[in-house]
Design goal:
This protein has 260 residues and is an alpha/beta fold. The protein has 13 helices and ten strands. The strands form three sheets. It has a five-stranded parallel sheet with strand order 8-5-3-9-10, sandwiched between helices. It has a three-stranded antiparallel sheet with strand order 1-2-7.
């Protein structure tokens, strides 16, 4: 299950419509900033955003339908169906679903069952290993606020917090684009690969290039120790591990989500 990356080219009419009618929206503020700087505007966007779906539910109706159509057997689709008792219209009509212990219980049970059904796709020594999540892609060089806030952890910082740990180390993470609006897609990919290679080298780690966000999440919840990275995907793994009473290193400046 590779992530589908969509590239949208905003024409002038669409830009003006959003600026004039939705200036205070997330996208409106970005477009106003970019137009002020006379920059061409493109959007790179990953449709499969499991952390956002569960934790902040900012997946709109169109994206949810695409997700269910493209990834019918995914953890995300199973979560949507179970959370809404198979009433998708309810999910569309209630965009703000509270994050609760029940929500984390639902996603945890779905993820554990998914891991059990796909155990052959996880490293054989996963239960004795360390998983490090790296948020790559837009956050490497993107210039909008959420990208700057999620700059990846410095290699030396990760190395230092694991300096006394001798367990085998795996890295999960691939380039991800969450409605990024900029022209440096190639630059972000290049810098992401350089950063990933540096972490691999310094920690003598192995990159689990599964090309599957669900398998990566299963590795994150089945490992002995999880090192949290940036973003909601990493926070979701942390919250599942908290629910299961498993050890996590919550990294520098990683934002917390309160479970009600």
């Amino acid at each position: 299950m590779g992530e589908h990356l969509f590239k949208y080219n905003f024409d002038e009419n669409k830009i003006n419509y959003i600026i004039n009618n939705e200036p205070e929206s997330f996208m409106g503020k970005i477009l106003i900033e970019k137009k002020k700087n006379n920059e061409s505007i493109y959007i790179y966007h990953n449709i499969y955003r499991l952390g956002d779906l569960v934790l902040i539910n900012n997946i709109d109706v169109e994206q949810t339908k695409m997700l269910l159509d493209i990834y019918p057997d995914s953890i995300a689709s199973k979560f949507i169906l179970e959370k809404t008792n198979n009433n998708i219209n309810y999910y569309y009509e209630n965009p703000s679903i509270d994050i609760s212990n029940e929500t984390i219980k639902i996603i945890s049970n779905i993820a554990l069952k998914y891991a059990e059904d796909n155990i052959n796709l996880l490293p054989i020594d996963i239960n004795d290993s360390v998983i490090i999540h790296l948020r790559l892609g837009d956050v490497i060089a993107g210039n909008v606020s959420h990208e700057k806030a999620k700059r990846p952890l410095e290699t030396n910082y990760i190395k230092n917090i694991l300096k006394m740990n001798n367990d085998k180390k795996y890295i999960i993470g691939k380039c991800h684009y969450d409605f990024s609006v900029f022209n440096d897609y190639d630059k972000c990919n290049k810098l992401s690969q350089e950063y990933l290679n540096d972490v691999i080298k310094e920690l003598n780690a192995i990159h689990l290039n599964s090309d599957n966000a669900d398998i990566d999440l299963c590795c994150g919840i089945k490992c002995k120790l999880f090192v949290q990275g940036r973003g909601n995907y990493s926070k979701l793994i942390k919250l599942i591990r908290n629910y299961l009473n498993l050890e996590t290193i919550e990294c520098e400046e990683a934002l917390k989500i309160d479970i009600k």
